[in-house]
Every structure is written in structure tokens, then in C-alpha cells.
Design goal:
Elements (H helix, E strand, L loop, with lengths): L16 E7 L4 E9 L5 E2 L2 E4 L4 H21 L5 E8 L2 H4 L2 H13 L4 E2 L8 H7 L20 H20 L8 E5 L3 H13 L2 E5 L3 H10 L4 E2 L3 H6 L4 E4 L10 H4 L4 E2 L12 H7 L3 E2 L2 H4 L2 H10 L4 H9 L1 H15 L3 H17 L8
Parallel strand pairs: 3-5, 3-6, 4-5, 7-8, 7-10, 8-9, 10-11, 11-12
Antiparallel strand pairs: 1-2, 2-5
Bound molecules: nicotinamide-adenine-dinucleotide.
Length: 360
């Protein structure tokens, strides 16, 4: 995979900038990937993960930063796409000096990249990073941060699901539908609450017994099933993957009975081509990065000084964006995932182009 855009190398990624950062003393090895700043500074979290190799770390940061450009574009943000990875074991290698060294590298980019939390990094870590850089968001409430982003993530997923329901059944509600929520974590719990309030019948599963106990105690009307495979094959109208990536694969799609898939999990399609398989089976897939953008909307709002109502309003617009994507998909005869990519690319080109208008 080449980083520079090339017509000869079909796997070239076309990233604007990729920065390798090392501080031997603290053990920091980080890669910051900036895919695009066409819409504004690149925003994306920092993943702290024990990759098997430097090549794996590079591959991940390139994929993730590209994904953020598309997600931020469709979330209507004036932000480009970036992401960072720290190569190491967060349980063993994370230290104040490592995080602060990382913060200094983020600062050295002068605001081309804003960082935030991701797998392996937490709000408290961002407070440490922020001691060396002003280009960090997703901070603790005590430091003016927005706090737990799962609140607006769940709200946005619910909005996307409503738009999908409207597209399939003619009315923007889940009332009377059976919705399978796979993963009752931070997002899944909030989503379950929205669905029940809307009048849906919820079926849930989780591998963690504590999550099952929570749902039994909080919502006794929820049907608990044993495992995502059982849920997928059961009589559900909507499938909401809210655990890990790869929920839609070659085994799942052929047995899926739901007419709609809309959930919070990132990278739900196990590989390219699954979106076509879903479309061929008449399943409407609301692209994950469109419907789960509530979290990034929340942390992005923090850059302006966090205002929950303003951020919620923006996350509510995920309904309109999902509707537009589904209509475009029908009009252009492509799966929604392809329509979403086209819409994101259009916004990056249309708005990014305005920078060519000379100001002074
Ligand atoms: N939190 C956010 O703001 C946010 C934003 C965008 C995307 N996401 C994505 O949404 C998903 C959920 O995020 P979260 O913050 O709720 O995470 P979480 O860790 O709080 O919850 C995940 C839940 O899934 C359960 N789980 C794990 N494997 C499972 C399996 N095989 N079957 C059923 N349940 C399983 C876990 O026990 C846990 O309860 C993740 O993929 C995350 O990347 C989250």
C-alpha cells in the first residue's frame, strides 16, 4: 500500500500527511495520519493498541483516518479526517511522560490535527495530553469537556434507524417493530431506552452477564437471547450491532431476517462486497459511520465550548442525512454505503474548493 496517490498503484491511499513520532525515553511510538483537511483541521481519536508490527499500525491509522474524513464530512462538521495510533500495550506502556510526549507531537502540527479518545485511551488520558497541546478534545467535564460521548452516539443511531424505518415501512418510527440490540454497553443501553420509549419491542444480547442483569432489572419487557447468531436468525425487523466490528459477514447475511440494519458498531461490514450481498437480499443497511457520528459530533462541539443542546440538535440531523443517502442510493441504483461515500466526497470537493476563493 502506497501513501502517495498514484494511478499505477490501485492501493495508494492519497493521504495528505503521515507523521511518525518517537520518544525513546518514554517508549512512545506513534503514527498520526491526516487524510484530508479540505473541510478544516483533521479530527480523530488516538488508538493505543499492541499491534503485531509497525506495518499493522500504519495500515490501521491509514484506514481509520480516511474513515474519519468521510464521517466528519457527513456529520456536517467543518473538520477534516485524521487519526493517530500509539503502538504499545495501554495497560503496560501508558505513562504520563509517554502521553505528554505524544501531546507535544500533536502540538507540533500546529492545529492541522485534533486528537480525542479511541480504543485504549480515555478522557483522563486526554487531560494529560492537553498539558502539552491545545489541539485535543474529548476531555473531562472538569476541564470543560463533553464527557461520555455514548449519549449522543445512541441518539444519532436512533435517528438513523428512524430514517431507515421511514424508507422501508413509510413511517419514521420503530413503534411495533422488533429491534435486536447486540451489545448492551454504553451505547446499547441508551439506544434500548430510546427504542422502548418509541414503542419498539427490543430483543437484546450481550456476552457480559452484568449487562444482561442490567437489562432484566431495568426493562423486564426486553427479550434476552443467547448470542448474536441466535438474534440474527430470529424474527427481528431491525438489527442493531452495538458491540464489535465485522458483525455483517458471509455467515450472518444469508440468515439475517431483519429488513434494516442500523447500529453503533464501527466497521460492521466484514469485507468489501457485503454491502452488495445485503442489498441483493433486500436488507437496507444504514452505513455505520453515518449513523454513529453522534459521538464525534459531541467531541467536535467541545472545540467551540461544549453546549449539549447544540450538539444534540446536530446529532438529530443524522435523520436527514440518512434519509438523503437512502434516497440517493435509490436514485443512483447503488447500495447506501456507496451513496454515503459519494455524498461525503461531494461535500469535501464542494466545500473544500471554496478555499480557492482568495480573501486578501
Ligand atoms: N461510545 C461511542 O461514543 C461510540 C461512537 C461511535 C462508535 N462506537 C462503537 O459502538 C460500539 C459500542 O460502543 P460502546 O461505547 O457501547 O462500547 P462498550 O464497550 O461500552 O460496549 C460494548 C458491549 O458489547 C458487548 N459485547 C462484546 N462482544 C459481544 C458479542 N460478541 N456479542 C454481544 N455483545 C458483545 C460487551 O460486553 C459490551 O457490553 C463499538 O463498536 C464502538 O466502536 C461507539
Amino acid at each position: 500500500m502506497g501513501v502517495f496517490a498514484s494511478t499505477e498503484d490501485p492501493d495508494s491511499t492519497g493521504h495528505e500527511q503521515v507523521v511518525f513520532c518517537q520518544d525513546k525515553q518514554s517508549g512512545l511510538k506513534a503514527i498520526i495520519g491526516i487524510y484530508s483537511t479540505a473541510l478544516g483541521p483533521a479530527l480523530g481519536g488516538t488508538r493505543f493498541y499492541p499491534y503485531a508490527s509497525e506495518a499493522d499500525a500504519l495500515h490501521d491509522v491509514l484506514e481509520l483516518s480516511r474513515g474519519m474524513a468521510y464521517k466528519n464530512a457527513l456529520a456536517g462538521l467543518d473538520l477534516g479526517g485524521g487519526k493517530a495510533v500509539i503502538w504499545g500495550d495501554p495497560d503496560k506502556d501508558k505513562s504520563e511522560s509517554l502521553l505528554r510526549a505524544y501531546g507535544r507531537f500533536v502540538q507540533s502540527l500546529g492545529g492541522r490535527y485534533y486528537t480525542a479518545c479511541d480504543v485504549g485511551t480515555y478522557v483522563a488520558d486526554m487531560d494529560v495530553v492537553a498539558r502539552e497541546t491545545s489541539f485535543v478534545t474529548g476531555r473531562s467535564v472538569e476541564h470543560g469537556g463533553a464527557g461520555d460521548s455514548s449519549v449522543l452516539t445512541a441518539w444519532g443511531v436512533f435517528q438513523g434507524m428512524r430514517a431507515a424505518a421511514e424508507h422501508v415501512w413509510g413511517s419514521p418510527t420503530l413503534a411495533g417493530r422488533r429491534v435486536g440490540v447486540a451489545g448492551l454497553g454504553k451505547v446499547g443501553k441508551h439506544l434500548t431506552a430510546h427504542l422502548i420509549e418509541d414503542g419498539a419491542a427490543v430483543v437484546a444480547t450481550d456476552v457480559d452477564q452484568r449487562a444482561i442483569e442490567w437489562v432484566r432489572a431495568t426493562y423486564p419487557q426486553v427479550d434476552v437471547v443467547n448470542g448474536a447468531a441466535a438474534m440474527v436468525a430470529s424474527d427481528i425487523d431491525v438489527y442493531a450491532p452495538c458491540a464489535l466490528g465485522g458483525a455483517l459477514d458471509d455467515d450472518t447475511v444469508p440468515v439475517l431476517r431483519a429488513k434494516v440494519v442500523a447500529g453503533a458498531a464501527n466497521n460492521q461490514l466484514a469485507h468489501a462486497g457485503i454491502e452488495k450481498l445485503l442489498a441483493d437480499r433486500g436488507v437496507l443497511y444504514a452505513p455505520d459511520y453515518v449513523v454513529n457520528a453522534g459521538g464525534v459530533i459531541q467531541v467536535a462541539d467541545e472545540i467551540e465550548g461544549f453546549n449539549f443542546e447544540r450538539a444534540k440538535l446536530r446529532a438529530t440531523r443524522i435523520f436527514d442525512t440518512t434519509r438523503e443517502i437512502l434516497q440517493l442510493a435509490d436514485a443512483e441504483g447503488v447500495p447506501p454505503a456507496v451513496a454515503a461515500d459519494r455524498l461525503a466526497e461531494r461535500r469535501m470537493a464542494d466545500i473544500g474548493r471554496l478555499r480557492t476563493i482568495h480573501l486578501r
